[in-house]
Amino acid sequence: MSASKLEYIWLDGYKPVQSLRSKTKIEKNFSGLLEDCPMWSFDGSSTEQAPGGSSDCLLKPVFIVNDPQRRNGYLVMCEVLNADGTAHESNGRATIDDDDNDFWFGFEQEYFLWSPETNRPLGFPKDGYPRPQGPYYCSVGAANAFGRAMVEEHLDACLDAGLNVEGINAEVAAGQWEFQVFAKGAKEAGDQTWIARYLLERIGEKYGVTINWHCKPLGALDWNGSGMHANFSNSILRNCGSRETYERICEAFRPVVAEHIAVYGSDNHLRLTGKHETAAITDFKYGVSDRGASIRIPIATVERGWKGWLEDRRPNSAADPYKVAGRIVKTVKSANVEYVMEPSRKEMVA
Exposure of 101 by Cβ count < 10 A (0-12 exposed, 13-18 middle, 19+ buried)? Predict the structure, then answer.
């Protein structure tokens, strides 16, 4: 009789930034299928999700991949439910209105590899600072790239797990890196991003390196912050062929700036200053190929005849991809763009 290790992963109720939690469930003769993952429970009073007198919270499995670092292991992403089966208030995944997977998301997850010994990024001396940013972006060599062995191990683990990680690169600041995750379906994009974060945190245990997800861990110094740019499309954006439609969807974001910023990560005012490739947090603007805009219209979208995607550059590195996706989906749908099929052209037009 074989025994499988199912690592149930969920988000706790800490504020303003939720943390990852996990525990292992042993299942005999497990099929490897999501539908055969049983519901489970945990002590919500230890995770800021329930009072001690009524502490049970439920774990609902929603996504499963192989665990690349454990024999007979699986990683199981879970939603947190109240004891009555309703979605817990900390459950950002339940806010996503994309049951038909029409929305595709690509998250560009930036982060700092952080030394607990110096309380600084890898590559920073104990006292003082390294050379100003410039040579570190997409760099190579021991003088510029710090922590590559850990980053490469993380990439291999993600790919071995079956996650759709599309690339990695060293970022603008010393010790700063990025990975990109893409999925067809807003919920799965969040699932994959969270499991990729989980693997990075767990691999850091081996190296004695922590992951700093804060959007501006170096404060007001002249170093880039960390973002989680959200590239998104739906069937309208992928097929419309209309600049006017793109602009109408972008304009739908203008009156709900505050609602987006509320779920785009804590302390974002420190990052969205109008400098370091950001738009100011109080502004809203969009433009073609503009990395200083709130929403960038990629040049590839224009070159394809206004068929492609948009990039919201405001979410920061500590944001919950579930909540980011949920808010973007809601705003895009609010544009109420409708389509008709022109029989003569046999394509969707605005």
Answer: middle
Q: Which of 235, 239, 247, 152 is nearest to 200 (CA)?
A: 152
User: Which residue type is seen at 222?
Assistant: D
Going by the DSSP 8-state scheme, the letter that residue 227 receives in this structure is B
Q: Which two tokens stand for residue 190?
A: 């969040």
**Can you list the pairs that 272-276 forms with residues at least 24 positions away whose Cβ atoms lie under 8 Å?**
272/314, 276/172, 276/224, 276/225
Give CATH superfamily name and number for 3-95. Answer: Glutamine synthetase, N-terminal domain (3.10.20.70)
Choose among 289, 290, 293, 264: nearest CA to 280: 293
User: Contact 146/113 with Cβ under 8 angstroms?
Assistant: yes
Q: Which residues of the chain have pLDDT under 50?
A: 340-350
Strand order in the sheet with 73-81: 20-28, 3-11, 73-81, 56-66, 40-43
Domain 104-334 has CATH 3.30.590.10: yes
Residue among 112, 98, 111, 104 at smallest CA distance from 230: 104
| DSSP 8-state assignment for residue 39 | P
β-partners of residue 65 are 75
Domain ranges of the chain: 3-95, 104-334
For residue 240, give the 3-state DSSP assignment: coil
pTM, 2 dp: 0.94
In tens, the pLDDT along 145-157 reads 999 999 999 999 9
- The gap from C-alpha 173 to its chain's centroid, in whole angstroms, comes to 20
